[in-house]
Specification:
The protein has one domain: DD-peptidase/beta-lactamase superfamily (Beta-lactamase, 3-Layer(aba) Sandwich). It is about 35% helix and about 15% strand. It has eleven helices and twelve strands. A seven-stranded mixed beta sheet has the order 1-3-2-12-11-10-9, with helices on both faces. Strands 4-8-7 form a three-stranded antiparallel beta sheet. A two-stranded antiparallel ribbon has the order 5-6. α5 crosses α6. The N and C termini lie far apart (about 55 Å). The N terminus is likely disordered.
Length: about 325
């Protein structure tokens, strides 16, 4: 009995220390991966990574549920946690798909209808849809943060009052438009909801991302305030690429997020065509870290790459994807 009590206390303290107390976690405690058995793939991955000697990089390739991880650099391994910049925006895209699946909010709905504030959205942005914002098509400029890098709701509405508004066919996400998007999602779900908790519980926890967390709690944390590991990014690849098993709700969410016939962007990912196959990918850099993920659902293959510092990883990611495709 004493041993059971001690174990319970240790578990409770562990959850409290990691910020997980009070959250219904579904961590399995076991790896979802099997080691890749193809020695040729292992060798080719090591060769590709070896050309980046002198840098700190961790990579993973997946074929079915078989996975190979390799790392170079001091202290680097697949569980090394680093900032992943705007790669975090894929989680908001998945959240939009989750809302659509539950009938809470459509990607074609107008954001202004869900912003409950006297200031409203920027003048000229009244007809901006959720889809335009989440796909980076709504450009309201960049959010100016305080000296500590934080951004509050008050700052959002103040800066939005005079923000220039543009709708484009493609481009980089506008951090100010993204802040309004996150506020729209929060209010459409629950006026009193905390957005970081919302996106964590509806998306991140369901993927069992044990190395990952939001390192800020402000309104733009889901834009570029996330840190993760190659191991966890490989889980994201597995769930979104249909290589790993998941519950029906997450399955429907991923399917909705991957389909967007109106542009070369899905709700959560960018896409390109390779050998007649659609490749879903996402890449980003931030102070202290860079990341790249890609997967081909039809072939059940994918890659994840993470680096210490601002490193261009697209070329390495493309090469690894070609290797695992065979």
């Amino acid at each position: 009995m004493k041993k059971l009590l001690a174990l319970t206390l240790v578990l409770a303290l562990s959850l409290s220390a990691t910020g997980c107390g009070g959250v219904n976690l579904n961590f399995s405690g076991t790896s979802p991966f099997r080691n890749i058995r193809d020695e040729n793939i292992q060798s080719l991955v090591e060769t590709a990574l070896g050309e980046y000697s002198g840098q700190n990089i961790s990579v993973g390739v997946m074929r079915g549920r078989e996975t190979c991880f390799r790392s170079i650099g001091d202290g680097m391994n697949e569980h090394t946690v680093l900032p992943v910049g705007q790669l975090a925006t894929m989680f908001v895209g998945l959240l939009v798909a989750n809302f659509e699946d539950n009938g809470w909010l459509s990607r074609d709905e107008i954001m202004a209808d869900w912003i409950n504030s006297p200031a409203g959205v920027p003048t000229g942005g009244e007809n901006t849809t959720v889809r335009q914002a989440v796909c980076g098509l709504a450009d309201w400029g960049e959010a100016k943060r305080d000296e500590n890098g934080y951004f509050t709701s008050g700052m959002m509405f103040h800066q939005g009052f005079e923000a220039p508004v543009e709708v484009r066919t493609e481009g980089e996400p506008s951090s100010l438009a993204y802040a309004f998007l996150c506020e729209c999602l929060r209010q459409s779900y629950n006026m009193n909801a905390d957005f970081v908790n919302l996106i964590s519980n509806q998306v991140v926890v369901k993927m069992d991302l044990q190395d990952s967390a939001f390192f800020r709690r402000d309104i733009l944390a889901s834009f570029d305030g996330f840190e993760s590991s190659c191991y966890d990014l490989m889980k994201v690849v597995g769930y979104c690429g249909s290589m790993l098993e998941y519950d029906d709700s997450l399955s429907r969410t991923v399917e909705i997020a991957r389909k967007d016939p109106e542009s070369q962007m899905t709700l959560a990912f960018d896409i390109y065509q390779s050998d007649g196959q659609t490749v879903c990918f996402k890449s980003a850099s931030a102070d202290g870290g860079s990341a790249y993920i890609a997967f081909i659902p039809e072939l059940e293959v994918g890659v994840a790459v993470i680096a210490d510092g601002e490193v261009e990883l697209d070329a390495l990611g493309h090469r690894l994807l070609d290797i695992v495709k065979g």
